[in-house]
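step=predict obj=tRNA N6-adenosine threonylcarbamoyltransferase n=336
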Amino acid sequence: IMTLAIETSCDETSCAVLKNGREVFSNVISSQIEIHRKFGGVVPEVASRKHIESMNSIIQQALDEANITFKDIDIVGVTRGPGLVGALLVGISSAKAIAYALDVPLVGVNHIEGHICANYITHKDLEPPFTCLVVSGGHTYLVQANSYTDYELVGRTRDDAAGEAFDKVARSLGLPYPGGPLIDKLSLEGNSQAINFPRPCLEEDSYDFSFSGLKTAVLNYLNHAKQMGEEIAIEDVAASFQAAATEVLVEKTIRLAIERKSKTIVVAGGVAANKGLRNMFLERGNKEGIDIKYPSTILCTDNAAMIGSAAYFNYMGGYISNFDLNVEPNLELGFK
Ligand code: ATP
Ligand code: MG
Ligand code: FE
């Protein structure tokens, strides 16, 4: 099955061609980060307009790089949510037009399912069931993957997403958007035990997370230090924050994996690229005899290949969309 996939949920315009959900022939990603950086975050209306401008040429580029034409496409997959409504509409409209013109099935995909499916591309032998932690810019989910199409939501953040917390802390340290990767880099030079930031919800029985208290603790620390005229070592702040955030994420995921007797933990979303998170997971996984998997770095953040993988597995599971498919900006995991 040859899949053409389109992703426009946020600020990446992306189109990919895949065979059977795991083999990527092309994955063209056009990022708008430079455009949004001067605003300190994504401006929805600007994002929609840029998607419209780039869409056609990105699709053509994906076909060219895969060395195929529209005639070779068997199904069209597209992100239907969650995401920015105007941005999603550009992708959905394009996907509908192509599927209709080619007379092939249209498969609307949950973007978060896509982040998880990025792992099927990187790890050719990966099969459900497994325990999964999704840590992206807008979501923090603890998930039990029961099949290729059944993702059971077990825990979530009560306030900020993990990536959002990284970006907000980075901003308070004077770093540009998106700050997650910069915190990661700075942490390598800092002492993670310099400041004892809180580990929210760690001792709690629930599988939920909370990051706004941790973010506030970092802000309070910075304000206090400034008032006292103390020198601030931003590497130490970055490393100490990262260690606190990471510890809660890792411990709760390990706890769920043990409860569900999972032999594999899969990490997904932009923050899955974080080196501190990966190292702590590998260390803890090693101790518990649990295999840890995460996508190759380029597949961690938004891209259409992961959407193509999710579209393929949904198509195989019989989930095909009608042409009245609409965007779902607040689509939850577990809903198609
Ligand atoms: P969602 O998928 O929830 O709609 P999104 O698509 O915007 O959100 P992703 O593209 O999955 O999110 O990830 C972007 C986030 O990942 C940003 O918050 C970014 O700072 C963070 N991020 C990327 N690389 C790293 C890293 N190495 N360390 C920490 N955070 C990172
Ligand atoms: Mg993005
Ligand atoms: Fe995303």
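step=describe
Residues 10-12, 301-302 surround magnesium ion (ligand 2) (CB under 6 Å).
step=end
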